[in-house]
Design goal:
homodimer, 304 residues, alpha/beta, Metallo-beta-lactamase, Chain A, 2 domains, 7-stranded mixed β-sheet, 9 helices, globular
Chain lengths: 304, 304
Amino acid sequence: MLDVCLLGCGGMMPLPYRYLTSLMLRYNGNNVLIDCGEGTQVALKKKGWSPKPVGLMLFTHFHADHISGLPGFLLTLGNAERTEPVLMVGPKGLTKVVKSLLIIAPELPFPIRYKELSGDTEFSWEGYRITAFRVQHNITCYGYSINIDRAGKFDAAKAKELNIPLPFWNRLQKGETITDEKGQTFSPDMVIGPPRKGIKVSYATDTRPTNNIIEHASHSDLFICEGMYGEEEKLDKAKENKHTMFLEAAAMAKQAEVGELWLTHFSPSLNNPKEYMAKVREIFPKAEAGKDGKTKELSFEKEE
Amino acid sequence: MLDVCLLGCGGMMPLPYRYLTSLMLRYNGNNVLIDCGEGTQVALKKKGWSPKPVGLMLFTHFHADHISGLPGFLLTLGNAERTEPVLMVGPKGLTKVVKSLLIIAPELPFPIRYKELSGDTEFSWEGYRITAFRVQHNITCYGYSINIDRAGKFDAAKAKELNIPLPFWNRLQKGETITDEKGQTFSPDMVIGPPRKGIKVSYATDTRPTNNIIEHASHSDLFICEGMYGEEEKLDKAKENKHTMFLEAAAMAKQAEVGELWLTHFSPSLNNPKEYMAKVREIFPKAEAGKDGKTKELSFEKEE
């Protein structure tokens, strides 16, 4: 249903064995990319997914490790013959930053649209409902929650009982209210149950832990969160540069009651993130260290 | 003496198995980088060479595959604690392009200096003598020749014969003309033989073959030249987009009477450049297909 791929899991600088952190989401032929550091296009090529369906790019902030791959990514998107618009969303200043970078990609076969955030914001795009929320870094930075909503169940027995003509069923399912030629009105709430649990993925980096993250990540199926350092003695460094420790990410995952936690945005000094996962799992058992190309397919819950 | 490393050998876009074309030269603790596409800093890290001694960056032109890695490279140079200036050399417009890209690398601990070329130009930097020469691409583009010159041999027997005092020898060797207290003048030509053969490396991409390239590459020890396509049927494409074919590079190497030819800047469509090397070697036998990390140490000729 919703495919999620952590294309890279590095922070600060790309390494020969670790791409910079970025996330791709695939749903219904329309892809979303969050962050695009140097090498993201290569990570995507390695994964084997096409760049062409990427129509929405979300940026957390404008530090180079989150956006330096943009010109190359857009040129490759152009080479893949995308002509449909690309919407970019990010902190204030987005338009200026992107236009500056486009000096080396001046001709693209698709238009770019910009949406600059000013505070927590919800918007929809191609079947996705997205919430941008402020996090706490040393420059303006946002996290994102991506939701695939699921309508209530259509009650066919009830529709029959109410003698709703068959041709109306599909229209009611899509949320339309219909008045027939006799003046009789049928509304979706007559036959549609309460909204069912959808799919939710949340993403937060680079930041100190905050309540706003916990609130927005609440009950995510998958929470992808910065874990800059595993070594507990690096807490002061994390505080100084506004990053999140492994154990702090675990504590947020627990409070937000998420389904699963993946850590990412590892410091280049951190060779083996797995070493620190035992302690993470003491706080939040369903936690994994991110890895380049780590993928999950998320589906709606099965019903009895 | 002079170490040369072809950090990557790809053109157009970086691939999981091929970095974008760039060249690093190491001489006497001062390094030169030619071109810096997306991923060049990773290729350098993989090679194991430090970025810190890079004080001169030469750009052939401003297509993204030759400069998109610049912001990340400079940030990594800053993290390596470089504080000495970095000189950048490239076509007109260089200052504007670099300053635009620096929007995502606004604070660097070293100053950047700019030298914009207007036509073939010779200049010196830290023991290197460099010639920039125009090539023929669809935007302004330069090739570069890098020379390490070698002075003539000091003739100790002659210095003794002429009764030149010993403390003057070293100064004469360095090119100084000296007048002693008796008014007697000693000049280098009295004891220094004619200049000896130095080391010369030439680099040309992206371009159609031209006489100017052949003249400037003349008698290079190593000529690193674009070979965009090996397949002969792609000649029209090469002509249209102003690139060089494998066989055309070989013909230039032959005419320029270079010591050795390395091909680079392979099209992403070219999976196995080695396949086409037999025909290349029919024209110019000392030819090799470039490879990421391909390295050579060039020394002055041994004397009897």
